[in-house]
């Protein structure tokens, strides 16, 4: 199934159709075919075969298609697949008990198992502490991040085909195209947390695993950046090679702000 999904993530027509669906408030196959310049038959085939449409889209009684997760900020629908979803400002305003209560309730809502509760809750709090430290550092560097979207325990596993997991997902909005400008793409930082102080190649691959699928779900206007966060390490910021020749950032919790700076460039 992994190979098939890898091919499906690069299916140009299926992806283009998925993007049209998730950026409209209802669109028909006829309208999709016209906008994409393809035959309606080809569209109809993808509507019932492309995994991201099968798992994450639906049609109403008028056969207008809708996406469960919108490809515009804020990304409507992410709440339904997250243990906790909100803005950075909302996250920073909550104390630990309130945040944990909402996260527990959210995990129950999305079917996230809370077995081994003691160790799991400890890891949740560890992740929370690192994210609070990181956002505090970003503000100290002059970054305005209150409106960024934030998910904890993202679990997109609607049905048979699409599986996407992230311990934390931070979505930074891009700049819209105004006055003829080119605009600026947004970023989605998919963070894999480990309570360790050493790099494990298996965990590096795990952190990068769902990037192609997140790129489809979030759309062309968002660059997906994976990173491995080692919360027991200190003063660590490096890059590990991936099997496809790319590099994945690896940071200790106290150096996670460097991942954001590498792509947002706020340190100059």
Helix-strand blueprint:
Elements: H1 2-9, H2 12-22, H3 29-36, H4 40-47, H5 51-56, E1 57-59, E2 65-67, E3 82-87, H6 88-93, H7 96-110, H8 117-140, E4 149-156, E5 164-172, E6 186-194, H9 201-208, H10 211-218, E7 222-230, E8 237-241, E9 247-252, H11 257-264
Parallel strand pairs: 6-7, 7-9
Antiparallel strand pairs: 1-2, 3-4, 4-5, 5-6, 8-9
Might you state the CATH topology name of the largest domain? Trna Endonuclease, Chain: A, domain 1
Question: How would a textbook summarize the main sheet?
Answer: 7 strands, mixed
Q: For the largest beta sheet, what order do the strands appear in spatially?
A: 3-4-5-6-7-9-8
Strand content: 15-25%
The parts where pLDDT drops under 50 for at least 5 residues are: 1-7, 177-183
Q: Spell the H/E element sequence.
A: HHHHHEEEHHHEEEHHEEEH
CATH class of the largest domain: Alpha Beta
Cα(first) to Cα(last) distance is: 43 Å
């Amino acid at each position: 199934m992994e190979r098939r999904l890898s091919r499906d993530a690069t299916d140009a027509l299926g992806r283009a159709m998925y993007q049209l669906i998730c950026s409209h408030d209802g669109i028909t196959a006829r309208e999709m075919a016209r906008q994409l310049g393809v035959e309606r038959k080809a569209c109809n085939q993808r509507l019932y075969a492309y995994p991201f449409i099968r798992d994450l889209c639906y049609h109403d009684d008028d056969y207008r298609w809708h996406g469960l997760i919108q490809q515009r900020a804020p990304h409507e629908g992410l709440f339904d697949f997250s243990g906790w979803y909100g803005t950075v400002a909302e996250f920073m305003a909550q104390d630990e008990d309130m945040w944990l209560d909402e996260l527990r309730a959210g995990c129950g809502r999305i079917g996230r198992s809370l077995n081994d509760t003691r160790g799991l809750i400890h890891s949740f709090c560890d992740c929370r502490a690192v994210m609070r430290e990181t956002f505090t550092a970003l503000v100290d560097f002059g970054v305005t991040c209150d409106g960024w979207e934030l998910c904890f325990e993202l679990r997109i596993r609607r049905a048979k085909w699409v599986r996407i997991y992230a311990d934390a997902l931070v979505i930074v909005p891009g700049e819209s195209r105004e006055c003829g400008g080119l605009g600026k793409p947004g970023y989605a930082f998919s963070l894999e947390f480990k309570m360790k102080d050493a790099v494990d190649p298996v965990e590096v691959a795990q952190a990068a695993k769902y990037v192609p699928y997140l790129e489809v779900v979030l759309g062309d206007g968002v660059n997906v950046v994976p990173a491995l966060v080692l919360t027991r390490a200190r003063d660590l910021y490096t890059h590990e090679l991936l099997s496809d020749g790319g590099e994945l950032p690896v940071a200790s919790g106290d150096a996670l702000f460097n991942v954001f700076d590498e792509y947002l460039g706020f340190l100059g």
